């Protein structure tokens, strides 16, 4: 054993000596790290930052849609839940991050465009992230053209065009999301191009994995900012699918290798984006845990999961609904507004305005405010008592119940009488015995819609239920129509025949709930105002909250009234419109969203030129005439697929949208057009100019054209930055189109 120990010590000593020798070698010679730095990228990044960050805090006032996004930033700072139908929460969280880094406490009233920011609002921090995103568009445009294997000259042209595009600068310098959306759109394209180029010579290398994963993350970020980002994601997926299809046909790769390639793409471009998208909502819901002004749009269960609000009211409610329970019933549909089943002592008029008659029974409506008349008692038809027994007898799916109005003690009823505003449906009322031949029909069968089994118990907040009338098979339903003045403009409730099909307006849930203890009416009325005592926890899972929040975002429709600066997609291409973002309160200094008209017109012309050339080449290739070498043709096709495709998917969907549209919606599509422009110019120079003289003349024309674009940028610069007051005559001179609304003080 001693001999083995000596040998081990000897071996260890040799290893240490070798290690020491290597260290001495490092000390004898300097440790050198080489880095490949593209100075063009560095310079473009610098000028991009200068153009977007220069005097970023000016104006120190609310500019256009900052009034909209600023409210959500304040909600984040105060951890208050909100719902915005414009898109997922990632973009709002990025803006809120700027506020957090700047120490913003959320205390500012975002109620008026032009309002001066108070000293506690870190304007520079709030505008920083959109400005950085806008600045990085410049070097990213350069790199995209390079990755498409076009020349450095064409790449510099794309970057410089993005640099001097006035509308992109304006949109980048404010608390807005378009520049961030464009950034992730271009990042997803750039990442995929880098990955695709690495595929040719170093697949499965660390760089290959990095760019592939970044493609998926960038696509998810684009979708997480605005739903329009999904179209760029689908574009990248489509190109990746075509490349994968070619990969499958590559006979030089083994089946195992092809499978690994496809698996890697599936994980990076499908699974990673989904998980990242879920992560945005997870962080969003973790941050916003307090009740806020948008609570009522959400379900009772969602509201109860928030701190304060309904959670404070429902804390301690019994979970299981029993015979004798006192409940409020909320319509799950929530449209046209959240409301609760309601009744009051007023009756339906004998004769309606159209001459039809009614039952003259007590009105039953849906009331959009919390009220003591929203309370109902769930009664066992076989017993007279209106209190919960000991032990309580829970109600299950399929049980027959009666609903007694708490304040008037009349039973919910329906019969073969037409509803006031929905004549094809039955009237719902609380029964009054007039001693005439109209017997009470007040039995209802409870059906739990979201049950797991037919023996499920009716639960507070959690159960979504329907009430099916025993006599007529009609279902208690919110029609959504507003009753006339005799119904106090409340919402109509009807009995809908089962044969008409299922709809969410037929579904209700118990929101507030207590076990009734008082049989006497006066004591019961006092009880209806008292708090509950039993403590039951109702924490929704993340996936349940995510699903509901996502559904509400997709289906919520705000009132899109016409705006002074709204426009149509056809007006964007020709720049027939602008938006006055801000006007100085004392001088003529103003900020407008107004594009560089030379760049906009040239970009549209370049895309038309590309389309004509593409189809010309395609027709000639069909006749076996190859105008371009195969590598040039593939490069030309890929550039068109990304740039023309990027323009199309970010522009054409707006023709199908029924919402108020503005010029800034066109900016993501415009960016792809701008990148295509120098690609077309290089193609014309390389393949259509046959002689050196033609190339020289064409180059001179390009220089003159770019000089004119710079001149337009400089001319519109006072309206881009808003830092230079202009005289009325100078402002009139800038009205190059009659449709441009340049503000002139009188």
Automatic annotation (TrEMBL):
Name of the top EC class for this enzyme: transferase
Source species: Loxodonta africana
Entry-linked InterPro entries: ArnT-like_N, MIR_dom_sf, MIR_motif, PMT-like, PMT_4TMC
Location of the protein in the cell: Endoplasmic reticulum membrane
Entry-linked PANTHER family: DOLICHYL-PHOSPHATE-MANNOSE--PROTEIN MANNOSYLTRANSFERASE, PROTEIN O-MANNOSYL-TRANSFERASE 1
UniProt-recorded name of the protein: Dolichyl-phosphate-mannose--protein mannosyltransferase
Membrane-spanning intervals of the chain: 12-31, 121-142, 148-168, 175-195, 207-225, 230-248, 268-289, 593-618, 633-654, 661-681
Membrane topology: Multi-pass membrane protein
Keywords: Endoplasmic reticulum, Glycosyltransferase, Membrane, Repeat, Transferase, Transmembrane, Transmembrane helix
MIR domain span: 318-381, 392-449, 453-513
Enzyme Commission code: 2.4.1.109
Keyword Transmembrane attached: yes
Listed pathway(s): Protein modification; protein glycosylation
Family: Belongs to the glycosyltransferase 39 family.
Gene Ontology cellular component terms for the protein in this record: endoplasmic reticulum membrane
């Amino acid at each position: 054993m001693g001999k083995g120990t000596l040998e081990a010590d000897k071996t260890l000593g040799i290893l240490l000596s070798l290690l020491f020798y290597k260290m001495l070698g490092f000390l004898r010679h300097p440790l050198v790290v080489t880095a490949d730095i593209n100075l063009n990228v560095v310079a473009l990044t610098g000028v991009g930052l200068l153009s977007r960050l220069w005097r970023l805090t000016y104006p120190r006032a609310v500019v256009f849609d900052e009034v909209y996004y600023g409210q959500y930033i304040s909600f984040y700072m105060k951890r208050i839940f909100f719902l915005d139908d414009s898109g997922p929460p990632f973009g709002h969280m990025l803006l809120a991050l700027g506020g957090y880094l700047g120490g913003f406490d959320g205390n500012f009233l975002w109620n008026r465009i032009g309002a001066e920011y108070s000293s506690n609002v870190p304007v520079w921090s709030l505008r920083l992230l959109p400005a950085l995103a806008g600045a990085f568009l410049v070097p990213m445009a350069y790199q995209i053209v390079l990755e498409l294997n076009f020349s450095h000259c064409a790449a510099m042209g794309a970057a410089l065009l993005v640099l001097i595009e006035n509308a992109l600068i304006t949109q980048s310098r404010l608390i807005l999301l378009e520049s961030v959306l464009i950034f992730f759109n271009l990042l997803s394209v750039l990442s995929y191009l880098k990955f695709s180029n690495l595929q040719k010579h170093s697949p499965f290398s660390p760089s290959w994995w990095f760019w592939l994963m970044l493609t998926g993350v960038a696509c998810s970020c684009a979708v997480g900012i605005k739903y329009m980002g999904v179209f760029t994601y689908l574009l990248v997926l489509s190109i990746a699918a075509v490349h994968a299809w070619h990969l499958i046909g590559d006979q030089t790769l083994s089946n195992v290798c092809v499978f690994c390639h496809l698996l890697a793409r599936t994980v990076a471009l499908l699974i990673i984006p989904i998980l990242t998208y879920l992560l945005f909502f997870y962080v969003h819901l973790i941050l916003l845990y307090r009740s806020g002004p948008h609570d009522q749009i959400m379900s009772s269960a969602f509201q109860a999961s928030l701190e304060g609000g309904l959670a404070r009211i429902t804390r301690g409610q019994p979970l299981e609904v029993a015979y004798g329970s006192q409940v409020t019933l909320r319509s799950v549909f929530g449209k046209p507004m959240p409301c609760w089943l309601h009744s009051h002592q007023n009756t339906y008029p004998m004769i309606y305005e159209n001459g039809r008659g009614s039952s003259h029974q007590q009105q039953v409506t849906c009331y959009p405010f919390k009220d003591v008349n929203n309370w109902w008692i769930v009664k066992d038809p076989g017993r007279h008592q209106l209190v919960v027994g000991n032990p309580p007898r829970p109600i299950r799916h399929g049980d027959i119940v009666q609903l007694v109005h708490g304040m008037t003690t009349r039973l919910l009823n329906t019969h073969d009488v037409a509803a006031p505003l929905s004549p094809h449906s039955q009237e719902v009322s609380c029964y009054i015995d007039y001693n005439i031949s109209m017997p009470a029909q007040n039995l209802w069968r409870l059906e739990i819609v979201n049950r797991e089994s037919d023996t499920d118990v009716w639960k507070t907040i959690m159960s979504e239920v329907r009430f099916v009338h025993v006599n007529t098979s009609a279902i208690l339903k919110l029609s959504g129509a507003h009753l006339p003045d005799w119904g106090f403009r409340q919402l109509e409730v009807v009995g809908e025949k089962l044969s008409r099909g299922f709809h969410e307006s037929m579904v209700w849930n118990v929101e507030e709930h207590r076990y009734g203890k008082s049989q006497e009416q006066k004591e019961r009325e006092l009880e209806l105002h008292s708090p509950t005592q039993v403590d039951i926890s109702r924490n929704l899972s993340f996936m349940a909250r995510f699903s509901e929040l996502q559904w509400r975002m997709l289906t919520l429709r705000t009132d899109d009234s016409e705006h002074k600066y709204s426009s149509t997609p056809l007006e964007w291409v020709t720049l027939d419109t602008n938006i006055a973002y801000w006007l100085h309160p004392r001088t003529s200094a103003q900020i407008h969203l107004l594009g560089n008209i030379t760049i906009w017109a040239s970009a549209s012309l370049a895309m038309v030129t590309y389309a004509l050339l593409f189809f010309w080449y395609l027709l000639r290739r069909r006749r076996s005439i190859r105008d371009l070498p195969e590598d040039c043709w593939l490069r030309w096709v890929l550039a068109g697929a990304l740039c023309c495709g990027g323009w199309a998917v970010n522009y054409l969907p707006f023709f199908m949208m029924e919402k108020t549209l503005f010029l800034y919606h066109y900016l993501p599509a415009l960016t792809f057009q701008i990148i295509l422009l120098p690609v077309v110019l290089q193609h014309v120079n390389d393949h259509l100019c046959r002689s050196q003289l033609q190339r020289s003349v064409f180059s001179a024309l390009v220089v003159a054209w770019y000089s004119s674009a710079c001149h337009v940028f400089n001319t519109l610069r006072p309206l881009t930055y808003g830092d230079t007051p202009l005289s009325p005559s100078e402002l009139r001179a800038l009205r190059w189109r009659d449709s441009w609304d340049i503000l002139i003080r009188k």
